[in-house]
Design a protein that fits this description.
The chain is an alpha/beta fold. The chain has helices at residues 2-8, 27-34, 45-74, 82-127, 131-136, 139-181, 183-190, 193-230, 232-237, 241-294, 299-341, 402-409, 432-437, 453-458, 466-475, 479-484, 502-516, 532-546, 558-563, 581-587, 590-595; strands at residues 362-369, 379-386, 391-396, 417-422, 425-426, 439-442, 451-452, 492-493, 520-524, 550-554, 566-571, 574-579. Helix 4 runs antiparallel to helix 6 and helix 7 (183-190) packs antiparallel against helix 10. The termini are far apart. The structure holds adenosine-5'-triphosphate (ATP). Adenosine-5'-triphosphate (ATP) binds next to helix 12.
Length: 604
Amino acid sequence: MAHVLRRLMSAADPSDTVVAAAPRVSPREVFRRFWPYTRGGRRWLLPLVLLSLTGPAVDAAELWLFKFVVDDVLVGRDLRPFLWIAPAYLGLVLCSGVLGFADDVTSTWVGERFLLALRADVFRHVQGLSLGFFERRRLGDVLSRVTGDVDAVETFLLSGVADALYYVVSLGIYLGMLVYLRWDLTLLALVVVPLFWGAARYFSRLVGDASRERRRRGGALGAIAEESLGNVALVQAYNRQAWEARRFERENAGRFRAAMASARIHAVYAPAVEFVEVAGGLAVLALGTWKLAQGQLTLGGLLVFLALIGKLYSPVHGLSGLGTAFYTASAAAERIIELLDERPQVTEAAGARRLHRARGGVEFDGVWFRYPGTSAWALSDVSFRAEPGRTLALVGASGSGKSTLAKLHVRFYDPDRGAVRLDGTDLRELSLADVRENIAVVLQETYVFHGTVRENIAYGRPAATEAEIVAAARAADAHEFVERLPDGYDTLVGQRGRTLSGGQCRRLAIARAMIRDAPVLLLDEPTAGLDIRSARRIMEPLRRLMADRTTVIVSHQLQTVRDAHRIVVLDRGRVVEDGTHADLLGREGPYALLHRPGSGAVLS
Ligand SMILES: Nc1ncnc2c1ncn2[C@@H]1O[C@H](COP(=O)(O)OP(=O)(O)OP(=O)(O)O)[C@@H](O)[C@H]1O
């Protein structure tokens, strides 16, 4: 039987791992991890508990009044007691309304404050993780954790605890009244309690599994939606809509199965519990009727007793069901904990040195680097030096390690061996923010945010004045086209600059780097993806940007490379040549080969 139930309610399909399940965590650990986030609302916890205690008390008083209605008014056929019972009843209802209002508002405030703190912290934490994390994880899953799973933790910690207290207090009050009315009937009513507990324990474990699966599928759905909608142009151009839809469908169906499993568990649990409850109630009714016939109990007393039993079962029911709620919420908490346990690979050393404005000396010294989880070296023993104010060009075939070098340069990763230095100091000894403050980057992928042109340029230095923004745009050869946009600098450019051309995006990125005014410039193929005319057009502003700054440029553009003070040629992660354009051409080595017509030359 248990085996059949388990199969019927199983939600997991381990064959599929778009997003792996987070490691399990004990409820105690969940409390330990998330309790600190209640700090902002902790002083309201006690009033909240007191408020929640008044609810059952008012309920019980209402019931007690009912006993008087039956015994004194109805059975006694006398309206006089009604004159005090009616106002008392109204007073109680009013009182419970006011208390309920205070309880609702306060508990929402405490819960939302908790979420405010937790969500902000999770976001800050994720933002601080190293690039490696984002290259490894699926963004959609991370988003679903930050936005969806965070909310469920609140249920675990606050609503769950508040409910537990409420149930315990209700139980105490109702039990007290029941015993006061008739202890022997109360004992009979309590016989069914262990049955509740047993059922709850069994079912809550099943619910936990189903919830975990639902959360995992939710993350996978987010990941697939983000990937396929984010690349919608590619999906449509290659007619992959149906394939993407199937991928989505598979996760969607998985989530559906998990939701159904959870519904089946609840659907079996609720009637099972109700059966036990009714059986208990009937037994009490039988004995109670007998006591009524014996004159040991009044009619009002019996009715109130039965009503109290109904009320008593609800907290017992609730308390045993809390396990289920806890397991549901802890499935979400596990996913948040996994995220919070992720440590940035690149961290700032204790006592890191501040560096205000660097002179701009860049040095790679015997650098070896392997991407985490891979076995091949992406960089092997790379050494070169860029003198302050000079330009160093990195060339090499695709996959030779140029972008990897760029990533190490801004400390997205640390080398496994060797060192990257700025003005002679290992980047690992410097404040991370200062390293990045001193380097302006224009990356291969042009980053333009959804916002105005002005905001996009000022992203390089938020404190920039209007005049500085315009000056940067002029220097980047962007002013002219910006002026022609419908709202000039206030024009909204779509996400990733979809409403601008590739060259225009690039010029905005150059303006952003201009305004940052850092001593070191890192340009990763600033002309990639542009046609020859557009590429030539941005050369002039690029030169203005590079003047008097140390520039490390990854480029396939012959003009830029030829003008560099030094050229480093990479091949499969190694430096194979190093010198000026004239030197290297004379050597007839790999660099010269790149220029030979008909050689499939990379440099154009
Ligand atoms: N995040 C990553 N994880 C694992 N391996 C990576 C990662 N990024 C790059 N690699 C590997 O490291 C090597 C160097 O890649 P890199 O992107 O630095 O080359 P590149 O010279 O910039 O190429 P391209 O000119 O095509 O941009 C390649 O073999 C690549 O497969």
